[in-house]
Amino acid sequence: MRRAARARGPGRSLPGGLSVAQLEFLSCLAENPAARPGQVARLLQLAPSSVATLVNGLARTGLVVRTGGVADRRTAVLELTPAGHSVLADWEHLNAQILAAALTAVPAASRRSLTASLPALRQLTSAIDALADEPQPLLVTGRAVPGEAAAGSRR
Prior knowledge:
mainly alpha; 2 domains; two-stranded antiparallel sheet; two-stranded antiparallel ribbon; 4 strands
């Protein structure tokens, strides 16, 4: 999707000339109005310093506004500006165009299968979102994910 978006975007770039990370950040703010920077960091699984960098850059370009917390930035809330909403709408429209164009290249029987599988795909994405909110290490067939200690293993 990212490659197709760049290829189809104006000037072969993404809407607003932004990166995917910046567009994901705008999407997160649209889904979580008045979020605090720490909340956005948790939702996107980013370091607070990365969120601060994104906020500063997007605020400088007029896409995000930070309110409150003048003396203490931890109390700040983040909002999309009208320009931020516009760029995000362009991103969503571009993705919809890509999906529509790609679906025309898929045989009708496959399109019917995709349509029939949408409820299961929604359940899958919800389950993936739930995993992102869990602090436990992910186990795969009784083995910990690389870099994690196996449950109950001793050396």
